[in-house]
Amino acid sequence: EDKVYIPLISKGFQHQFWQAVKAGADKAAAEFNVEVTFEGPDNETMVDRQIDMLSAALAKKPAALGFAALDSQAAIPILKEAQEAGIPVIAFDSGVDSDIPKTTAATDNVAAAALAADKMAELIGGAGKVAVIAHDQTSRTGIDRVDGFVNQMKEKHPGIEVVTVQYGAGDHLKSTEITKSILQANPALKGMFGANEGSAIGVVNGVTEMDRKEIVIIGYDSGTQQLQAIRDGVMAGAITQNPVGIGYETVKAAVAAAKGEEVPTEIDTGFYWFDKSNMDDPEIAAVLYD
Amino acid sequence: MSTAEAAPPPGIAARLFSSGAHQKLLAFASLIALLIGFTLASPNFMQMSNIIAILQATSVNGVLAIGVTLVIITGGIDLSVGTLMTFCSVIAGVVLTYWGLPLPVGIVAAIAAGTLCGLASGTFVAKMKIPPFIATLGMMLMLKGLSLVISGTRPIYFNDTPGFTDISRGSIVETIIPGLPIPNGVLILFIVAIATSYILGRTILGRYTFALGSNEEAVRLSGVNTDAWKMAIYALAGGICGIAGLLIASRLNSAQPALGLGYELEAIAAVVIGGTSLAGGRGTIMGTLIGALIMSVLTNGLRILSVEQEWQTVVTGAIIILAVYADMLRKRRTS
Amino acid sequence: MSTAEAAPPPGIAARLFSSGAHQKLLAFASLIALLIGFTLASPNFMQMSNIIAILQATSVNGVLAIGVTLVIITGGIDLSVGTLMTFCSVIAGVVLTYWGLPLPVGIVAAIAAGTLCGLASGTFVAKMKIPPFIATLGMMLMLKGLSLVISGTRPIYFNDTPGFTDISRGSIVETIIPGLPIPNGVLILFIVAIATSYILGRTILGRYTFALGSNEEAVRLSGVNTDAWKMAIYALAGGICGIAGLLIASRLNSAQPALGLGYELEAIAAVVIGGTSLAGGRGTIMGTLIGALIMSVLTNGLRILSVEQEWQTVVTGAIIILAVYADMLRKRRTS
Amino acid sequence: MKPIIAMKGIVKHFPGVHALADVSFGLLPGEVHALMGENGAGKSTLMKILAGIYSKNGGQILIDGQAVEIGSPREAQDLGVNIIHQELSLMNDLTVAQNIFIGREPRFSFGRLDEAALNRKTAEIFKSMNLSLDPRTIVGTLPIAKQQMVEIAKALSFNSRVLIMDEPTAALNNAEIEELFIIIRRLKSERVGIIYISHKMDELKRIADRVTVMRDGQYVGTVSAAETPVSEIISMMVGRALTDAAVVVPELGDAPVALEARGLSREREIRDVSFSVKRGEILGFAGLMGAGRTEVARAVFGADPLDSGEIHVHGKLCPIRSPGDAVRAGIGYLSEDRKHFGLATGMNVRSNIAMASLDRFISTIGALDEAGMRQAAQRYIDQLTIRTPSDTQEVRLLSGGNQQKVVIAKWLLRDCDILIFDEPTRGIDVGAKSEIYKLLHSLAEQGKAIIVISSELPEVLRLSHRIAVMCEGRLTGILPGGAGTSQEEIMHLATLRESVTQPLGAA
Ligand SMILES: Nc1ncnc2c1ncn2[C@@H]1O[C@H](COP(=O)(O)OP(=O)(O)OP(=O)(O)O)[C@@H](O)[C@H]1O
Ligand SMILES: Nc1ncnc2c1ncn2[C@@H]1O[C@H](COP(=O)(O)OP(=O)(O)OP(=O)(O)O)[C@@H](O)[C@H]1O
Ligand SMILES: [Mg+2]
Ligand SMILES: [Mg+2]
């Protein structure tokens, strides 16, 4: 079988978010009758592992390549190799600082986190202390979401103080323990933002274990537990990206690029705020995963 | 000889509340110092709710550390404890949620899975003579992959199993002594500690654990079936990891198949901080408990003080070294 | 006697191409088997560009593994190699990018930083008698935190230092032998391997490395200043991690301050797969190289075969165990 | 003549042990001064203080009349004091030459090693010792006797003024002891002072000038070796006189055979060895070092696999594949290398004694019966006079001889029908030795079958009811025990190489 082969090198593969991206990619693969593989390192610090994955993918002589860069600069030389070999590259999830990728299918994480900040401000009445638990201190998504949230608070909501930002590596248990310590240290805390799925679940767990129901929790991404927490009213709401869409659009663009067709320079896959009130709306339900 | 002079207290003094533990009490020093320091530094630290949070945070790592203590005393090492824990929680998830079997079956399945995997590691080490580091590293990788395969790379939730979260989060103690909300997870940690101490100090399995670490060949030439005992010890350690798997699954109300990497180093660190020698032949469960507590008090306290996270890491590293150094000095002085 | 029977070939046979290495060549078996297997399974595997990619992927882990081999032969362990590598690359970033100093200064600074940190670990171990596991675990945490602190928790790019990426990515070999684009990183790996082999086999430092791992007390009773030598060995290992730091920074054209955790286990695995005993006293650089190659061939090959990622992990674990088992059987047969 | 060494009023405490109390000792240049005493008398401790390994708690050391503080082995070496340790302290993974010159390697610039010079110098030392050993052999692969020779070579490689030898001959055979004595005489002529510790009384007369006796960490007296009868020295050591009865070979005509080995073979080490032991019999195994006696014992015990051969216990074919099988069949094996194969030295006396019998000390609820084990341990501590502060002392803190007694106790407690003792008296003092002889005889009288492997011919002659002699892995003959057999007959068989046409010197 001489199917067109398109590898996707992502930032991870074990998390639900990435599994949803993969699902989207698989859907597109079936639709366009191409072969897709999906691979990513264990966590978002492993910049060099990702490069090794890229070079193995190139060795397989793909028709096109999907790539979610952990560090876009670090990957440029190998992307150049791809370019020289005539393999079109489609960036997804976050951009690459280079003109090599034909297009980028991504979420604007800064804007998404700013939306979370606005919602938080609205829910706690524009004043008080909040805290952030994020997954990673150095990765692009970690930095963007924290910066987006914190800067938006500084600029638009001066009455709100972000008392601390801590990092739990997306590990549910570690994030739980961190949440509990933050709650212990800040009895007056009003809200917490969990900047990815693992972090958000950690916040939910910690708040539940400490029995601090007054805390307003805002999450990021979806997944069974977050959806459940929102339904139960423990979590006020969350930002969701459109991971299935990201995967789908990436493969679709890759197929087009492989055929030499023109692709748009940017594909905004969008992000949405969802809470108890709108989570069952069809257009929202379509981008949620569990 | 310096070896004699640096000699720690009698190796067999493994019982939790025995005469050997009396000496070990001195190792509390670092722990007490930390507790006092944090209490003075923050009013939020020394509060019932926080102490319970610390104990709760110790439960999973503590149980893992107890399991790995056994293996380390035999002179081995177990790098697979973290992913084995995860694997067991995934097994519980499959049995309870996918198959819908009753809670006790899930509990037995998780512990049995741990025991079997431990037995497999033990077989690699004892029968195939693969160095424990490699045998359990391989096991760690295999279990990591298998957890993902079995779970279908997604968390398994225990929403259909009422009472599952009580394994770790409920509090039997509070129903007996109102106002003392010690979570079951902590209770289980102490039960595992006491049971393992008993096994180590009072049973033939425990005696051989120390003997294997002390001089395996001499034990074999005493007519003991060292391979079988070693496999039994790894299996027991695996079973204990199964308990840890239940604890973490219960706390997270889900089996998270990607979790577990890195837990092995933390568990081994607790063991070594607790005075167990990686060379084998000596160690105590009491020490391991203290070691695990030192680690979680430190983490919790630094967070309560809102120390910047990168500095938290630096301070944790420094204090681990200092704690062991203090213990070293004390031992040198007493001998 | 079982000790004699399990005894691998002469321990001192550490030189890369010495008579001892001749026996070691048999350990190539697993490596060759893997290479043949993958070549048959996929036409994309055995191609110049992929072989070079494998070598390139081995360079960082290989250099780290060489450093840790030294420490392991003394009977110690070094868990800090991964974060020390990162720390050194951050130091290079600070010197070259933040301070704008010339390239050679940055190179010297990175290696010096590694050497100093190694010396610190060595001091903890030799002078303060802290078990190597704990001393280097503490060091690992401290360096992890310090890398973040120094870099301001963000990657440092080397765009202002022309030629920096050539450290690892350029190819001196190709300018000499056109058509053989072996990257400098791989060249450096081999140079480090040969130099370290020389040191181990032919110098006084190497002699004491084996002697310390074999029977430290006996060495001390012979009037040797064991502490000083041990510190020197840890310092040398640290310096080698500094080289690894330069390699990875050059490859990524950036110092990634959060990288490095988990690299220590991989490096140690390479060492043990290569036949070096964690008990100390014996080991070869050649073996370590083979071990590191086995690991990267395996990873690369499974990717080329498009094995699902969770199964890649399972297979890697299984093959690591099998490779060591095969080596074990071979040794048992030859002795 | 002025003494090189004068030790005065030396005191040394260990936790729970008062090892030395007011001990004095002097050494003249060119003298061989024997230091005698029972196991645990404090001989090694006193010498370790002199060699800078232990620090003393009181007293004074004078070298050439000058008070010195010896703080480390290096300082002792600088003062010309070197020691051959009782417990071997070699680096097993290094070669012989590398061991000998550790810390003093010949080198080029930049710390590069001159391996050729190293091996050459080592070869020279070996030549002067008449020892044929490749300097490049890895020490760990050598049998214990060869390792002992390496230790001796190492001490000789220093230009010592004082050489301490702590039981150098414990693991050596007669030929090697001869070589050692030649070396000692040469050193004497070079006016080196030698302190010689041994439990072999016959060596005293042959080599020592003066004898200092210690008992229980105290100085008993110094006498001239030539003028003092051995019996007097012994009674100084043990505080009483010992009688030395000759062996009486019992009539065992119709006693049942307890153990029979048929055609045992393993590679080149064991070649078609067959023998049997009856109940109540002591079968001695004699032979030169490397004859394969230990190999036979280990194979019978299941410690090493056999290529072929059968083992019958009490007349029944008994497949023994592991030491566990052997112990279940009622066979016990006391190894010649107690440190590696006999003891868990990090554990206490009680645990070690109980090690082979733990299954008998399990109470109803699965717990170990500590009280029972304590009683058992105490019984053997008393019976074998094991010198230890308590049964919870760690074994590594006991003196060498007392460690050996702990291993013996382990097998006595196990109560096996067939006991194999491999060098049971290695490093054991005369008093305890005669206790062990008595013990072996009484065990035989109780109907046990006993195999004793010993490199000391007088011991074999004194103990055995029959004597099996081995050479190069073959059983070359079985001689009757008792007064009728001479050392010469044994040596003839022990050197009976395969090409019998070649007459051999020692025979
Ligand atoms: N490091 C130590 N710690 C505690 N006790 C010790 C230590 N070293 C020796 N002892 C004790 O000191 C006493 C003297 O021991 P030493 O080794 O000097 O005896 P020895 O005369 O050499 O006996 P042997 O003939 O059996 O070798 C013994 O009771 C021994 O148990
Ligand atoms: N230098 C050597 N290197 C390797 N193997 C040796 C060496 N010398 C002896 N051997 C092996 O060791 C075996 C004998 O070991 P051992 O000396 O324990 O025998 P033994 O008869 O029990 O002697 P003894 O009990 O007197 O030491 C022989 O089969 C021989 O092959
Ligand atoms: Mg002695
Ligand atoms: Mg022998």
Question: Can you give keywords for this protein?
Answer:
heterotetramer; A: 290 residues; alpha/beta; 6-stranded parallel β-sheet; 6-stranded mixed β-sheet; 10 helices; 12 strands; D: 507 residues; Rossmann fold; 3 domains; 17 helices; 32% helix; globular; binds magnesium ion
Written account of the structure:
The complex is a heterotetramer, with 1 copy of chain A (290 residues), 2 copies of chain B (335 residues) and 1 copy of chain D (507 residues). By secondary structure, chain A is an alpha/beta fold. Helix content of chain A is 44%, strand content 20%. Chain A contains 10 helices and 12 strands. Chain A has helices at residues 16-32, 47-59, 76-84, 109-124, 140-156, 172-185, 197-210, 224-232, 243-258, 282-285, and strands at 5-9, 35-39, 65-67, 89-93, 103-106, 128-134, 160-167, 189-194, 216-220, 237-240, 266-268, 272-275. In chain A, strands 2-1-3-4-5-11 form a 6-stranded parallel sheet, sandwiched between helices. In chain A, helix 4 (109-124) packs across helix 5. Chain B has a single domain, classed as ABC transporter involved in vitamin B12 uptake, BtuC, CATH 1.10.3470. Chain B has helices at residues 2-5, 19-24, 28-41, 48-73, 81-98, 103-126, 132-151, 172-176, 184-202, 204-220, 226-252, 263-273, 285-304, 309-334; strands at 156-157, 254-255. The radius of gyration of chain B is 20 Å and the shape is globular. Chain D has 507 residues and is α/β, with parallel strands linked by helices. Chain D has 3 domains: 5-237, Rossmann fold, CATH 3.40.50.300; 242-330 and 416-507, P-loop containing nucleotide triphosphate hydrolases (Rossmann fold); 347-414, no CATH class. In chain D, 32% of the residues lie in helices and 24% in strands. In chain D, strand 7 (162-166), helix 6 and strand 8 form a beta-alpha-beta unit. The two termini of chain D are 44 Å apart. Residues 499-507 of chain D have low confidence and may be disordered. At the B-C interface, helix 7, helix 12 and helix 14 of B face helix 1, helix 7, helix 12 and helix 14 of C.
